[in-house]
Write the structure tokens for this entry.
Amino acid sequence: MTHSVASPWFLAAFLAIVVVLLAIDLGVFQRKLHAITVKEALVWSLVWVVLSVIFGTWVSSRFGHQAGLEFFTGYLIEYALSVDNIFVFILIFSFFAVSSKFHHRVLFWGILGALFMRGTFILAGARLIQSFHWVLYLFGAFLVFSGIKILLQKGETEVEPERNAIVRLFRRIVPMTSGYRGGSFFCRENGRMFATPLALVLVTVETTDLVFAFDSIPAVFGVTTDWFIVFTSNICAILGLRSMYFLLAAVVDRFAYLGTGLGIVLSFIGVKMLLGTVYPIGIETSLIVVAAILVCSVLVSLLVPPRKLKSEPDSSI
């Protein structure tokens, strides 16, 4: 097992708690398929944030102030980067014409897939860093490149599901129904098993989340190389992503400069990793800088809306 302040037993306990919370969410509160209201999304968003703060406070008290700061910095970075995911999810659901009452179901199972994929990615990254320290510089250079790319795109995010190689492969090899079958991902017709378009939507969500993980996970490794903190901060942020989606889906395009802020954050973390041995930047400074950049980008978005938002108020998806 790679370097961590926590033992594998802490990870097992964390995963057990996550599974229980998700089971309660799906089996009790979301047992009946329905469109999530803004009020319901706000309540659940607050619940996940409060639970994450409680967990981060426990990390700080159990493993030390430094570990707590690393968790909250990683959580803040991951949570902010999730806004890009929200915009992409809007485009995916719109592209496939998914009924709003099925959005939560797709995102719920998407979370379970993210647990496995991100866990595998984080463990592999931690092992690489432990064996080859220079990988940190590779991650740093990649983050600087990603940040500059986002800045050149002016924070805009594009997604074209029809060009996704995995989506095309899925359509080619998996028999599919011609239309949706309620909230089912698979169904049996004429003695054969078919995937529904909702299964294709889930595959698209999973593959796009994996793409985002290539930015967000190295960014958290720029804060700490502790696999436990990297993983738990990632998962805590992802758990709140579903509720935040329903809360911000209608207004996410109003945060026009947040993408620019995220590009600056990624570039900053990348430079921090590249300068690690020459000019180390403390975790307190990193947390303050990241928070300041994100707050400023949100304030600028609210106070100085882009001209196109004024002239095209009905352009949101």
